[in-house]
């Protein structure tokens, strides 16, 4: 099944671009539901999942996690017994959610390192949405109702976390252009303009019968 992944710098409006692209293509969209599905699979709250993802695990935690996976005691535990909610467990659950979404049909996936996990698929297109620092700060100010200083702090911190997450989990550089089929500047094109450009790329690069669910080409 064809798939599009949307990576985005914080404040670039990448989630809005993904939603618009999914509507144009009439594909499924998996964005914020990502965290919720991972949380359900691990018997956690979405806030707990995000808290674990947003910090760098300590060396001790990663060693303990490795031992947990290899422990015979863990293997002999009841099937319903939850394992410790480490970052590695969350990553494993994230992979399952991505694979299940792709298996169901054409889908637009937002974030969560999907571009790295699906890097070798021939039917996947990977896009990166970026913006200028000024435009990103303005968007976050308007969306979160915060000051310019706080918005700038959020932009810098969230982008740092995303860079470290991709580097730590996949040993890839999150913002490296070579990891994507196209990089889109939403400060220049706007949200609708970005959607239009990406839609054109998808329709040009994927076979016509894959543009729409059910095998029909969009009008």
Key traits:
disordered C terminus, 10 helices, 219 residues, five-stranded parallel sheet, alpha/beta, Rossmann fold
Structure description:
With 219 residues, the protein is an alpha/beta fold. It has a single domain (3-214), classed as P-loop containing nucleotide triphosphate hydrolases (Rossmann fold), CATH 3.40.50. It has ten helices and five strands, in the order βαβαααααβαβααβα. The chain has helices at residues 14-25, 33-42, 46-53, 59-70, 72-75, 87-104, 114-117, 133-144, 148-170, 186-205; strands at 3-8, 28-30, 107-110, 124-130, 182-185. The chain has a five-stranded parallel β-sheet with strand order 2-3-1-4-5, with helices on both faces. α1 runs parallel beside α10 (186-205) and α2 (33-42) crosses α3. The longest helix has 23 residues, at 148-170. It is globular, with a radius of gyration of 19 Å.
Secondary structure elements and their pairing?
Blueprint: E1 3-8, H1 14-25, E2 28-30, H2 33-42, H3 46-53, H4 59-70, H5 72-75, H6 87-104, E3 107-110, H7 114-117, E4 124-130, H8 133-144, H9 148-170, E5 182-185, H10 186-205
Parallel strand pairs: 1-3, 1-4, 2-3, 4-5
Helix pairs in contact: 1-10, 2-3, 2-6, 8-9
């Amino acid at each position: 099944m064809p798939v599009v992944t949307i990576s985005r710098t914080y404040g670039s409006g990448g989630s809005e671009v993904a939603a618009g692209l999914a509507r144009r293509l009439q594909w499924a969209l998996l964005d914020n539901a990502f965290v919720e599905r991972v949380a359900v699979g691990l018997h956690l709250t979405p806030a707990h999942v995000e808290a674990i993802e947003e910090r760098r695990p300590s060396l001790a935690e990663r060693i303990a996690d490795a031992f947990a996976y290899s422990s015979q005691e863990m293997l002999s535990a009841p099937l319903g017994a939850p394992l410790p909610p480490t970052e590695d467990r969350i990553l494993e659950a994230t992979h399952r959610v991505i694979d299940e979404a792709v298996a169901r049909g054409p889908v637009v996936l937002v974030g969560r390192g999907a571009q790295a996990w699906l890097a070798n698929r021939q039917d996947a297109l990977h896009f990166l949405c970026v913006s200028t620092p000024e435009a990103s700060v303005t968007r976050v100010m308007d969306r979160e109702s915060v000051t310019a200083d706080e918005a700038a702090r959020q932009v810098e911190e969230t982008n740092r976390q995303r860079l470290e997450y991709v580097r730590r989990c996949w040993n890839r550089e999150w913002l490296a252009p070579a990891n994507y089929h196209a990089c889109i500047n939403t400060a220049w094109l706007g949200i609708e303009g970005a959607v239009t450009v990406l839609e054109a790329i998808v329709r040009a690069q994927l076979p016509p019968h894959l543009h729409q669910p059910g095998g029909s080409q969009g009008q």
